Amino acid sequence: MLIGSNMSVIIQRSIFLLNDKTVLARFLKELKQDEKDIVIPGSAEFEMQRQEKITIPYENMNPQISDLFAKVGMLEMRFSPKVSNSQSVMDEQWKHVLFSDFTAENTFGLDIEVAPQSATSFHEYKNTSFKAIKSLEHILKVCSKDMPIFYQEWFQKRNFDLDEKSSLELIVLRLWNAILARNTEFPVRLPDIACASSVDFVLHNKKHEASITLYWDSVKRPAIISKKYVIQEADSISSEIAIFMSKKQAMSTYDPPLTGLRMKLNNETYNAQNRIIKFLPTMLHASQTHRTLHGYHIKHEILKPVGMHPDYKMSIVEDDKRSAFAPPRSSADTQCSLMLQLSVPKQIIIDKYELERLKGKLFKDFRVHNNGMNLELPEYRVKEWGGALSAVLDADYIMNRQNESFVIPLHLRYGKPLGDFQETYIPKAQVYWECSVTEDKQKEVLAKSFYNEPDRLGIDKFVKHSVFYHVRDSDRLSSNSIKVEIPTANLKDAYSNELWTSVLVALGTIYILISLVKPLS
């Protein structure tokens, strides 16, 4: 919780998810509190997931920033460092979607999505979007020349090739220091920020506030919620810390109850003479919009040899023979579609004409988002950041094929003649079931879900009353992207080819002229 003098309340919500119920008693015994800190013991024995959400009203922000945010109203920025293949894979249980849809997406790098709510024309919509994206890139010091692309019904800008200096810690602190009206310390310790797995920045249109959410895949060190940020006697304080226990036997269900402890901080409890803040029993019924499809996982790979026409292969692997490759249906009226979302950098082309031959087989329907980019241009002549593919897959076609796999054909653009291979990375595709919700009671439950963010942009933004079941990645925690080696020409060969081409053209021209002159003589 962080309060500055003469400022409105900035709310901090901390969630810790305890992995193993067998250590719960020892965990509670080691839970320490004093006047300075609330220590959440984290270690290899007490492995946890963690989420920190800090909510900031517009009136707390720098006026120039808040004015822009008020015009935009709906914006989401996500940053996730590229995961190294050498990172150890954690317990299988952590691959389930628990906190939000963010953990279900195989994204890396910087992703900014904008859908201005105040625009009265598409021209204004476009200009406001570009201004918001440029402002954020300037704040984060990760500006690139690539243009955003209109993706379905909003503008999207991605940056896959951030330098090593653009760490998650720097991204968070630059954003925090820029949007606040005055210097205020971030309410999470720097070592904790440095080991976070991703950060999410969302504008909430109806509430006129923004939120910064940090995610940790696991916590293996003590996590400290420092009280030094809340010693502001004159201000109201609003903060909540919750520790939930995940029961392994409940993880196979789609609506797992999470039991645990919750502690609220406010002026009255903090200013009490004893200053002992107790954790009280609590329960969370996690009816999330985004869930994990149990019983299956998906393997992503680029088939070799790559050449100039790589094939992106996805193989669906069965984990449990008792599970069908289909989500549960709440009623007979529930309609479900198997969906694919794939984003690629500008070095790679998704050719809609090439994909047409898969329509009626692999694809029931699809759409390529690339703003009509010229497919013949070399990579260094393309202004846009890349393109994307949205598709409705034929589940029967996939599951009836041998090895339950399918291939998406891609094309490589010509790059600068470097005489070697150029490396680029593709965020792994998302494969998920999109199911309609027909019962009024279930719609109400989903709308009030503890995890759901109504103003988030993404696959669910323009699909009302739907639940998404993600087919999890087989190695999401060891790699969130696929490397592609793009062959490039050699400049020496280019000079030689140009010389021989010029010589042959000259000889051909001379031969044609001589042939034309002979009949005249």
Give an overview of the whole structure.
Among the domains are: 114 residues, no CATH class; 202 residues, no CATH class; 30 residues. 20% of the residues lie in helices and 33% in strands. It is built from 10 helices and 26 strands. A hairpin with a 2-residue loop joins strand 7 and strand 8. The N and C termini lie far apart (97 Å). The N terminus is likely disordered. One of its GO terms (cellular component) is endoplasmic reticulum membrane. This is Protein PBN1.
What is the strand and helix layout of this fold?
Layout: E1 11-18, H1 24-30, E2 32-33, E3 37-40, E4 48-57, H2 63-72, E5 75-80, E6 109-114, H3 122-140, E7 149-151, E8 154-159, H4 168-179, H5 190-194, E9 198-204, E10 209-219, E11 223-226, E12 239-245, E13 257-265, H6 267-270, E14 280-285, E15 290-302, E16 311-318, E17 336-345, E18 348-349, H7 352-355, E19 363-369, E20 386-393, H8 395-400, E21 405-409, E22 411-412, E23 421-427, E24 430-436, H9 440-447, E25 466-473, E26 481-487, H10 491-520
Parallel strand pairs: 1-12, 15-25
Antiparallel strand pairs: 1-4, 2-3, 3-11, 4-10, 5-6, 5-9, 6-8, 7-8, 9-10, 12-13, 13-14, 15-16, 16-21, 17-20, 17-24, 18-22, 19-20, 23-26, 24-25
